[in-house]
Each structure stands twice: as C-alpha cells, then as structure tokens.
Design goal:
Number of strands: 14
CATH superfamily of the largest domain: Type I PLP-dependent aspartate aminotransferase-like (Major domain)
Strand order of the largest sheet: 1-9-8-5-4-2-3
CATH topology of the largest domain: Aspartate Aminotransferase, domain 2
Strand content: 15-25%
Bound molecules: pyridoxal-5'-phosphate
CATH architecture of the largest domain: 3-Layer(aba) Sandwich
Shape: globular
Low-confidence stretches: none
Radius of gyration: 20 Å
CATH class of the largest domain: Alpha Beta
Length: 363
C-alpha cells in the first residue's frame, strides 16, 4: 500500500459536486475580486469563529504582517513568539522591522506561558501565539500576562481552525486572529488564501483599506497598503468547505483518537493533550530520538511522513542576521530533531489508518 502524508484530492472528492457547482457559478458571474462571495464568506467565517469581524486576505503570511502593521508594531519593537514555529509566524514580525524574541515551547508545542514574563522588556509590544498542529496554547495564562503588561496579543491560527481553549475558539482571544486557507490547512482552499478575525471595528476597517492599496474609495489612497485580496473563486469554494467544517473536524479528531488508542511502541511518543483544549489535529505529530531511522523504515513500507519543522526559525539562513547559534533554544532544537507528522487527512480510509498503525507498531 502507498500512503501519502496528505491527500488533497480526497478532500475535493468528498464534496465534488458542491465544489464544481460553486466554481461554475463564480466563473459565470463575471465578478472575480471582492464581491459577494468574499462578503458572504467573511460573515460566515466570523460567525463560525465567534468574532465580530473577519476580513479576507490573500494568504496567512499577509494576515500576520498586516496585523502587526495595523497595530503599529515595527522598528525598535519586540514581539514574543515561540521558538518552534513555522517561519511565516516570524516573518510576519520581521517584515515590519520588529524584532522577534523567542520563547521556548511547552510539552504541547505551544508557547511556554510560564516563560513569557522573563522575556518582557521596555521594548516588548506584543505576544504572538501559534496554536501549532491544531492545539491551542495555554490561553488563560497568556491573556493575563498580555493584559498585565499592556501588550497586544496576536494569534497565528493557520493550523487551528475549529480549535478551542476552554470552549472558546482560537482567533477570538487576542486583538487579531490570523488564518491561512492554504490547501493543506484544516479549512483549505484550492490555492492561497487567508483572513483575520477581530472584535474591533477599527481594526477590521483598517485591514480592508490595507488589503486594497490603502484605499477605501477607489483611487483615493490613504496609506501605503498592499494587494492582498481573497478572490471570489477561493471565497466561494471556502464557503462550501466551511459548511462542512463540523464533520471535517470530527473526522480528524476520530482518526487521532484511533492513533492514540492503537499506537503502542516505546520507540516514539504520542502527542500530549492539553487540559481545556480540543486538539483539531492539523497534524498528528509523534516524537522519537530515532526519528530519521523511523522515516526510512516507513518510507520502505510506502508510508510518507513530513517533519514540521526541521530547522527552527532562529537557525534559518534567513535569520542569520539575528545572530543566534545552535544551542540557544535547546527545546525547539530537540523538537526539530525528533518530531514527525504521520499521515492524517480528511478522507483517510480505515484500511489506510490500520496500515499506518500496524507499520508503526512493528517498528
Ligand atoms: C501555513 C502557515 C502560515 C502561513 O500561511 P500561508 O497562507 O501559507 O501564507 C503561518 N503560520 C503557520 C503556523 C502556518 O502553518
């Protein structure tokens, strides 16, 4: 059997007719950018998340850097962010000229809430939390630190659509929630897409201006903005997928529950569940000190895996200018050496799950 880490085609065929019908509807409408589909999607996604506003954008990275731009976080400012994240989180900070201050992750791959305060200086302006792999960070503690020190709180929800903490959706805890709809995400489109959520009408309004060359009224440009518009086709297709989010999320939770129950092998560790959070499993990440051997073994059995992520941002070539060296963030570095995402996707058959479980148990 051949099993890939992800199967985006399965996600399409689950609702093929609805997707095809919507695509034709948009193509035939003659309106392709910032129209009714985007408007409807923004309303429906805000309602789903439980925030007052949603603004559609072209990508998750745009959501992140525009969030800090609008909050006025830039040159000379510091932003606390976890050391084990995807590099886009960090780029959202540095594109604005601000400095990332890395905080090590806890055992659940979220920012270590107990390590935050020690990193705060006079320059700290914001905390960026990343609900990595689909599990919320420890939001009660993080929110109280942000409040106590008067810091902005931004959430990177690119992997946590539908993920909650204490029953409250990720994307509603901070000033701005940043989402990606890249095809592999829990709510994925058929191309690039992103959005922010917020309860602040002023932030929502500013974001609409920034995404459209800094203009509210055509050809009257108030600020130097960008072109970051979710297109009608993606918005329409995302509306179809969003209408099935409940069952799509449950499907992944069920696969993870089976992995949790049936995977038994001291050669690797299963993901830990944070009390108070519902993990929505953008990725099912195991950890092993024999990770590279395990990858080769699974590959021979036809099972594909991915490392999320092999190089922590502080060691990326792009951030050599920050002057970090190996050993500076040992927890993130150990995770980078040990984590492995095993196959997990909507439309994964029971037979495929069994094959993965049997192979892993026999390692
Ligand atoms: C995917 C992702 C992003 C970036 O989203 P794009 O839409 O690809 O720009 C940012 N942060 C995290 C944690 C991600 O997984």
């Amino acid at each position: 059997m051949k099993i890939m880490p992800n199967r985006l085609d399965r996600g399409f065929y689950q609702y093929q007719e609805e997707f095809e019908q919507k695509a034709l509807e948009v193509l035939r409408s003659g309106w392709y950018v910032l129209g009714n589909e985007v408007k409807q999607f923004e309303e429906e996604f805000a309602a789903y998340v439980g925030s007052k506003y949603c603004v559609g954008l072209a990508s998750g990275l745009d959501a992140l850097w525009l969030a800090f731009r609008i909050l006025g976080v830039g040159e000379g400012d510091e932003v606390l962010v976890q050391s084990n994240t995807y590099i886009a989180s960090v780029m959202g900070i540095t594109i604005n000229g601000a400095t990332p201050v890395f905080v090590e992750p806890d055992a659940y791959y979220g920012i270590d809430a107990d390590a935050l305060e020690a990193k705060i200086t006079d320059k700290t302006k914001a905390i960026l939390v990343v609900h990595l792999y689909g599990q919320a960070c420890e939001m009660d503690k993080i929110c109280s630190v942000a409040k106590k020190h008067g810091l902005y709180l931004v959430e990177d929800c690119a992997q946590s659509h539908g993920g909650c903490y204490g029953g409250q959706m990720t994307g509603t805890f901070g000033d701005i929630g940043c989402f990606s709809f890249y095809p592999s995400k829990n709510l994925g489109g058929f191309g690039d897409g992103g959005a922010i959520t917020t309860n602040d009408p002023e932030i929502a309004q500013k974001m609409k201006i920034y995404r459209n060359y800094g203009s509210e009224k055509r050809y009257y440009n108030m600020v130097v903005g960008t072109n970051s518009r979710l297109d009608e086709l993606q918005a329409g297709l995302l509306r179809v997928r969003l209408s099935h989010m409940k069952e799509l999320t449950q499907e992944k939770i069920d696969i993870a529950a089976r992995y949790d129950k049936e995977l038994v092998n001291p050669a690797f560790e299963l993901p830990k569940r944070r009390a108070n959070a519902n993990h929505v499993f953008h990725q099912y990440v195991i950890r092993s000190s024999r990770r590279d051997e395990l990858i080769r073994y699974l590959d021979e059995k036809g099972i594909g895996t991915i490392i999320h992520y092999p190089i922590p941002p502080h060691l990326a070539e792009a951030y050599a200018y920050l002057g970090f060296a190996k050993g500076d963030y040992p927890v993130a570095e150990r995770f980078a050496d040990e984590v492995l995402s095993i196959p997990m996707y909507n439309g994964m058959t029971e037979e495929e799950q069994t094959y993965v479980i049997d192979a892993l148990n026999a390692f």
